[in-house]
Design brief:
Strand content: 5-15%
Number of strands: 14
Structural class: alpha+beta
Number of domains: 1
Largest sheet: 7 strands, antiparallel
Distance between the termini: 47 Å
CATH architecture: 2-Layer Sandwich
Number of helices: 20
CATH topology: Creatine Kinase, Chain A, domain 2
CATH class: Alpha Beta
Length: 527
């Protein structure tokens, strides 16, 4: 029996384990006015405090909403909460809607894009100044791109069943999640091909900069074979300083070591900017990363942090808790930005990545072929004859490799369906074969062709569909009890922020210095 067969048999003998998988969603979306322009209004007080409300907050811009679900043990429960959050938010917006696309709405000049405000407490100011730093380093426009982050965790019992080595559960868990991440890095190009939905942008997004994009409709630019411009060098990509940060997923110690160095190493261009301008903070520090979360990646190993705790320190001390998938575009055809079928596919894909053999990356863990594959697919994934480099250094066609991955996922879809009942996971996998047989079935191709053939602008199409989605959600209002629960949570979050701001504390400069000191050096660097 092969290692793969042994692991599948072990999981089949313990079906209750898969029922303990947890998944959560962080869904971003810009608030826009009824003309589809970025909202210039503050975060609505009816939604609570962006600092303290754990389910409704903002990301970069004041207008960039982020809806955060709790962890759920079923896809149905997950999407029920996500729908409630969308409905609650929609009911509180006055003359505004949530933009249901990853690439931004009509943006004002950069100087007029308001950065998220979280109040005057040290905690709130840290979040705000960090975002000021992002504006200085990358510009505000890029920070207005939105996506769906999918959080995924496997039950602790699973690592022993799979025979994951380690001195204790924490080491087993961390090694298991890094194994998942290595395979995800190898195969995540497939997610971009199957679910990428941002082949076009508004001309306004470029803010006058030149590009290789072609006009396909009024005020609409695109690449003919792109799947996700959001994940291309036009969107969420690491700039010059971060390009030198090559994280390693072979082992947690090396990963943390490289993250630590980036968070304490000055970068000349950022030193030239400085931390203050006209007496005000403009970035937290002049390092390659202000904080660890500044590193842009399609997946992250995560550990819940406490007050003023650094992410790298939490990982070093308590290991990996879950993974955060960050590369998923908003699905413009789904009112929630993601469908149940996509969630079932992601669960199957991530389980496949966790259980399949996952060799270490060579050359210090830099995984260059995987990065090249991903970059090719987001910009020209639907190009006829496109080839990729697989883990054996072989040149393979995208459709052939994609079918091979789907074939391998079938056994995991069956296991999940046996555990949860029904056939949703197998159907989710089966539905993807058609996209590999004919690229015209992909979301990116369908959106590209719709805009090209109708000559409707990206802006007009997205505004219309976003409005229809909001009307659909509001047609099924929350029960009085659920509405009161969300309203009480919003009110409580405002009170929590007020209490925090009224509590005496050290100066902001002292707080930042303490936050910097809380980045604990990796064990190998401690004397």
């Amino acid at each position: 029996m092969t290692t793969r067969q042994h692991r599948l048999a072990a999981l089949r003998a313990h079906p209750h384990i898969l029922r303990s998988i947890l998944r959560g969603i962080e869904k971003e979306g810009l608030r826009v006015n009824e003309q589809g322009q970025l909202a210039q209004t503050p975060h609505p007080s009816a939604l609570g405090s962006a600092l303290s409300n754990e389910h409704v907050t903002t990301d970069y811009a004041e207008a960039l909403l982020e809806l955060i679900t709790s962890p759920h043990d079923t896809v149905a429960g997950l999407l029920t909460e996500l729908q409630e959050l969308h409905t609650f938010v929609g009911s509180k917006l006055q003359g505004e809607i949530v933009w249901n696309q990853s690439m931004p709405a009509l943006l004002p000049d950069e100087k007029d894009i308001a950065i998220g405000w979280y109040g005057s407490s040290n905690t709130g100011m840290l979040k705000h100044v960090y975002r000021r730093g992002l504006a200085e380093r990358y510009g505000k426009t890029m920070q207005c791109i939105a996506g769906v982050h999918y959080n995924f965790s496997l039950p602790d019992e699973m690592w022993g069943v799979l025979g994951q080595c380690g001195q204790d559960l924490q080491e087993q868990r961390s090694k298991g999640y890094l194994s998942l991440i290595r395979n995800f890095t190898r195969y995540s190009w497939l997610l971009m091909y199957l679910f990428g939905a941002s082949p076009a942008i508004s001309k306004n997004f470029l803010q006058g900069a030149s590009s290789q994009l072609s006009q396909i409709a009024p005020d609409t630019l695109a690449l003919p074979y792109a799947t996700s411009l959001r994940m291309s060098d036009l969107g969420y990509q690491n700039k010059e300083a971060q390009a030198e940060l090559q994280l390693c997923y072979n082992d947690l110690d090396t990963f943390i070591m490289r993250m630590y160095h980036a968070a304490v190493t000055p970068w000349p261009a950022y030193e030239a900017i400085g931390t203050h301008r006209d007496g005000e903070w403009i970035q937290l520090n002049t390092h390659i990363l202000q904080i660890e979360n500044e590193y842009y990646s399609s997946i992250r190993p995560k550990r819940t942090t406490g007050p003023c705790e650094r992410p790298a320190t939490a990982l070093a001390e308590r290991g990996v808790e879950y993974v955060e998938v960050r590369c998923m575009d908003i699905d413009p055809t789904a009112p929630l930005g993601i469908s149940a079928q996509t969630c079932h596919f992601l669960d199957t894909f991530l389980l496949y990545c966790a259980v399949e053999d996952s060799p270490y990356f060579p050359d210090g863990g830099f995984c260059q072929d995987s990065k090249t594959n991903f970059a090719s697919v987001v910009k020209e994934g639907r190009k006829p004859g496109l080839t990729l480099i697989n883990q054996h250094k072989e040149t393979v066609s995208l459709p052939a490799w994609g079918r091979s991955i789907l074939d391998g996922m079938q056994a995991y879809a069956e296991l999940l369906d046996e555990s949860f009942g029904g056939t949703a996971h197998q159907e989710a996998v089966q539905a993807q074969y058609a996209k590999l047989e004919n690229a015209e079935h992909t979301p990116s191709a369908q959106l590209y062709e719709l805009l090209r053939s109708t000559q409707q602008s990206f802006q007009a199409f997205t505004l219309q569909s976003s409005l229809e989605h909001q009307q659909h959600l509001l047609a099924s209002p929350l029960s009085a009890e659920r509405l009161q629960q969300y309203e009480r949570a919003a009110s409580a979050s405002i009170q929590a922020q007020q209490v925090l701001e009224a509590t005496p504390s050290e100066s902001f400069a002292e707080y930042v210095a303490r936050y910097e000191r809380n980045l604990t050096p990796p064990l190998a660097l401690r004397s």
